[in-house]
Structures are given as structure tokens and as C-alpha cells.
Write a structure and sequence with these properties.
About 45% of the residues lie in helices and about 20% in strands. The chain is an alpha/beta fold and about 350 residues long. The strands form two sheets. The chain has an eight-stranded mixed sheet with strand order 2-4-5-1-6-7-8-11, with helices on both faces. β9 (about 255-265) and β10 (about 265-275) form a beta hairpin. The protein is globular, with a radius of gyration of 20 Å. The termini are far apart. It binds guanosine-5'-diphosphate and magnesium ion. Magnesium ion (MG) binds next to α2. Magnesium ion binds near residues 103, 104 and 127.
């Protein structure tokens, strides 16, 4: 076996082997997932994408049990352990909560099932390592291309915004939040695609900046400025009628607010959060991104969107209608911290 491997290495070279591995991986993903709806989480490593998915799934399960559940054991165990780890840390007696700037380093996929009245709808979430978003890194060229392909094929793009990097030091460290790379990835993926898309900008780790309505407005204004490259897309008539964009801050911890960064040699090494002693772990609004995604999905079904053609035979309008009242009754529309920036018609309409 190792002899075969070294012969192959000699013939193809390591670059050749990695091209083949990537091609097989792509084929595998596209075969396996041709009848699924795809959602993507975008954000640098450590932004909190996995945690956000874990909290979102957990909250949805509490509110409407069995409506959005893991379709495989790996999805369940990865998200369940991310959730537990966060909760244990948030409820531990230590006053501070330290977070390193590294996160997951490989492509994670989470398979879910949306349970309809008679049929089920498979949904796949992609969670990329932040490094794959970097278009300047030649070693990541194949991975970057894969990100673009997946984002292009995804109906919902959830941008996990690591808020302290936008807010602190007047945004000097915003590169850590991957702003330019996220904007570039979204623009590239919209280029060859004409379908409707929902882009959710989800500020996380934002407990400190949302204590009052006035604070929250300051945060949203800052985020709007920093992400204006995405928010201004609908000014272009080419995109105007097919993009819905909303700003939905989520508290994935609730009882800890940002305190400071730690530095080494001019680089940020850790984010430090301080806990509120009078509170326990209390995520807030973690169900909202999924409510928005499902509401968008309802409208796409109603419109007979071509994106849904592959799943149409499995899941009919009636199936998703059974979720409609629940999804929409609890949706926070332009209230408190939430803003629909454009495409309200795509996102929310009585069908
Ligand atoms: N204090 C705090 N830590 C968080 C929050 N969200 C995520 N984390 C931590 O940040 C780290 C990276 O999160 P993860 O979800 O793995 O990031 P990913 O690389 O984007 O998937 C983990 O140690 C989490 O426990 C938050 O809202 N507050
Ligand atoms: Mg992750």
C-alpha cells in the first residue's frame, strides 16, 4: 500500500494528488447533496459559526421539538458538544471567559431535516475554515474555489460577524472579522447565479454592544458601514429583486460581554469576556436566523422557485405550510435589534 502511494506520488506529484482529492471531494459533495437545500455559514475561524449553528439548532428544538433535527449522528454530536462546552464555560465560577483566535480547521457539514406534515426536507449547512476565504493564499486556491461554488449553490448565506473586531479600537482590527474576504466571496458567488438569496448578517459576541437600544443602534450603524459592500448590492438593478438582506444580532452566551483583547507582538491572541455574576448562560434570539431562513423558503416555495426544483417532488407546499404559523409568529421584524435591509417581499409575505 505504501509502495503504491509512493509510486503515485512520484507520478502525480503532491500537487497532482491534491487536485485529484479535491475533485473527488467535490463530486462526492455534489452527488450526495443534489436533492438538498444548502445553507452556508461564512466567517473567519473562531468567529463562532459552529457555536451559532449549535445554539440555533438547540433553540429551535426547544421551541418546536422535532422540526429541525440532525440528519446524522456526527451533526448531532459535533453541535451538541459545541453547545455543552459553551454552556459549561459560561456557567463556570470563573469571572473571565477567554477565547483563542483559532477555530475549526476543516470543512464541516451539518445535515438537518426539516420535518413537514408528510414529507421531510433535507438541509445541509456548510461551515468553512476561515482560511479558505482567503483568495490571496495560493495554497488555498482549490479550497477558495470550493467555497465560492458552495456559496453560489446555497439559498441562505449566514455571515457570522465577530463583533468585537468591528467595534473595538474604532474597527482597526476588522481584518480579523474577514470583512473583505466575505464580501468578495459573496460577490463572486452571485456573479454566475440568478437565483434569489437570503443573506443574514449575524453579529455574535455582541452582548456588550446591545445593552440598550441606543447602543444597539450604534453597533448596527457601524456594521452597516463596514459591510456596505454587501448592503449596497441591491442598488444595482441586477441584484435588486433577488436579494433579501437582514441584520440579526444573536447572543449565543448571554451572560458574558467583551472585555478586551490580549496581544502578542502586535497580534491579537485572545478575546477576553467578563461574565455577569447575576446571570447564567442565556442565549437570546438564536432561533431567529432559522426563522428567517424558513420564512424565505416558504416564499420560494410559493413562487415555484427553480432553486427548489430538485426537492419539489419530496416536499410540497403543504408540508412547509405546516410550519408557517410557528416560523412567522415568532419572527422579529424590524424590531429591537433587528433590521431587514432589503428584499422584505422575498422574506416575509402572507402566502
Ligand atoms: N464569549 C463568547 N465566546 C464565544 C461565543 N461564540 C463562540 N464563542 C467561543 O469562540 C470559540 C470559537 O467558536 P466556534 O463556534 O468554534 O468558531 P468557528 O471557527 O467560527 O466555527 C469557541 O471557543 C467558542 O466557545 C460568544 O458569543 N461569546
Ligand atoms: Mg467551525
Amino acid at each position: 500500500m505504501s509502495n503504491n502511494k509512493s509510486q503515485l506520488l512520484k507520478i502525480l506529484g503532491s500537487e497532482g494528488i491534491s487536485i485529484i482529492i479535491n475533485a473527488v471531494r467535490r463530486l462526492f459533495i455534489s452527488r450526495k447533496s443534489s436533492n438538498e437545500l444548502w445553507f452556508t455559514a461564512l466567517g473567519p475561524s473562531g468567529a463562532g459559526k459552529t457555536t451559532l449553528l449549535a445554539c440555533m439548532h438547540k433553540r429551535f428544538e426547544e421551541l418546536l421539538p422535532g422540526s429541525f433535527y440532525p440528519a446524522d449522528n456526527k451533526t448531532f454530536s459535533t453541535l451538541n458538544s459545541a453547545y455543552k462546552k459553551l454552556k459549561i464555560e459560561a456557567n463556570s465560577p470563573s469571572i473571565e471567559f477567554e477565547v483563542g483566535v483559532e477555530g475549526t480547521s476543516d470543512l464541516r457539514q451539518y445535515a438537518f431535516t426539516i420535518k413537514g406534515k408528510r414529507a421531510n426536507l433535507p438541509v445541509r449547512f456548510f461551515d468553512f475554515p476561515g482560511g479558505w476565504l482567503n483568495p490571496y493564499d495560493e495554497a488555498q486556491a482549490e479550497n477558495h474555489e470550493q467555497v465560492i461554488n458552495i456559496v453560489q449553490r446555497s439559498m441562505v448565506i449566514m455571515v457570522a460577524i465577530n463583533t468585537p473586531y468591528i467595534m473595538e479600537f474604532d474597527g482597526r482590527y476588522k481584518d480579523y472579522a474577514g470583512v473583505d474576504e466575505i464580501e468578495y466571496a459573496i460577490k463572486l458567488s452571485l456573479r454566475n447565479d440568478n437565483s434569489d438569496k437570503l443573506i443574514l448578517l449575524v453579529p455574535i459576541k455582541c452582548e456588550r454592544y446591545t445593552r440598550t437600544a441606543a447602543d444597539s443602534k450604534i453597533m448596527r450603524d457601524k456594521i452597516k458601514k463596514v459591510f456596505s459592500g454587501i448592503l449596497n448590492l441591491p442598488q444595482n438593478p441586477v441584484y435588486r429583486d433577488r436579494l433579501a438582506i437582514a441584520l440579526l444580532p444573536v447572543h449565543t452566551v448571554g451572560n458574558a460581554h467583551f472585555s478586551r483583547f490580549t496581544f502578542k507582538g502586535g497580534n491579537i491572541t485572545q478575546e477576553v469576556y467578563v461574565k455577569n455574576r447575576t446571570m447564567k448562560f442565556s442565549p437570546k434570539d438564536a432561533d431567529q436566523p432559522l426563522r428567517y431562513a424558513m420564512s424565505f423558503l416558504l416564499n420560494e416555495f410559493a413562487k415555484g422557485s427553480t432553486v427548489l426544483a430538485s426537492v419539489k417532488n419530496m416536499f410540497m407546499q403543504n408540508d412547509i405550510n405546516s410550519l408557517r404559523d410557528f416560523v412567522r409568529a415568532g419572527m422579529k421584524l424590524n424590531s429591537e435589534n433587528f433590521e431587514i435591509m432589503c428584499g422584505q417581499k422575498l422574506l416575509y409575505k402572507t402566502v
